[in-house]
């Protein structure tokens, strides 16, 4: 949709997602504006209240590259990290074999290796926001105890 003004972005979202006007407006102000966004944003609430639907619709409406990782589908931390790198690569449009070979070697054994590979992927995209969403990260199976604190500090690298 390009760079729409907040009002132009809000109207279609409010029409498609009922009873979430305030939450949509807050998310648009935090994510979609040209101003700096907070490094981390946690959406928390009761189950089945439309958090995933709302963030998916918002991310499809804005022109910032983004990746949504369904954390519940990942069995181990390694699986989550490798899937995240793959999704980031797809979101950046680097799907050809050469870009894949240079950017990500396919294996990600630790959080530190993840950070290095993520930096390589985002190297040419540092002027634009990149939005990385971990959906249901609190329900990720067999998560290392350092996973959430490490993800919360990604912006520091």
Helix content: 40-55%
- In round numbers, the mean pLDDT is 85
- Count, helices: 7
Order of helices and strands: HHHEHHHEH
Estimated structural class: mainly alpha
Spatial ordering of strands, largest sheet: 1-2
Low-confidence stretches: none
* 3D shape: globular
Strands, count: 2
**Percentage of β-strand residues:** 5-15%
- Alpha-carbon distance between the two ends: 30 Å
For the sheet with most strands, the description reads:
2 strands, parallel
What is the C-alpha radius of gyration, as a whole number of Å? 16 Å
Would you kindly provide a written description of the structure presented here, covering whatever features stand out?
- The chain is mainly α.
- It is 47% helix and 6% strand.
- The protein contains 7 helices and 2 strands, in the order H-H-H-E-H-H-H-E-H.
- The chain has helices spanning 6-16, 21-32, 51-61, 77-91, 97-103, 111-122, 147-152; strands spanning 66-70, 131-135.
- It has a two-stranded parallel sheet.
- Helix 4 runs parallel beside helix 6 (111-122).
